[in-house]
Amino acid sequence: MKIEVIHNGKTFHVPSKYFKLCKKVKKRPDFAELEENNLMRTKQHVQNVIEFSRRFRMLSAQFANHDADKINKTSFLYVPYVLVPLKHVDKGLLSADEKLIVDIATFVHVKSNEHHPEFWDQSVGYNDRERVADGSKMSAIAMLEMCCDWCAMSKELGNSPFDWFDKNNDKRWKFSEGQVVEILHNLGRAWGDYATAAEKRRVEEIDKQLLPPSH
After folding, report:
1. Rounded Cα distance, 57 and 53, in Å
2. What pTM was computed for the model?
């Protein structure tokens, strides 16, 4: 049995088992601690997204509401996202049922938030979510938020948004050639002094493609 849920203006059909498992998770003895950790982590993540967006001298309401469905207690995604930090540490810390609700919540989140390429590809469903998502229809503001999101995650995890892009481009998502140039330009501006010398050279070469032709 599935229950119809409208989330961020989109309709999803969620297995009734999902809601029963969420109630079970809330009975974990460490739930309150996990809940507090997720709240602090997500709020810091959003602040980092906003901070990186300031490199572009802009701040839209879209950025201020980044990942709001992860920490809004009225959101049906709230409980699984309390568990997500455990997934980052060690997937073995989650039971099979917990992995299931995290997978469902993650799918709903990426399909209902514009800064994820999956939002823009109607052909990607839950049962074929491993398909390469076509991000070619992403708006400029959505791509900018996506880049700031990657930078915020890299700052938290101590890695590089350029490496993240290279690892997933044409494997998890696909973009047009023009979008790739724009994404790398955005990453260069947002990541700034965090970038390695090699990354800065890469952005310099990319930026040459954005210059108007000389006469």
Report:
1. 7
2. 0.92
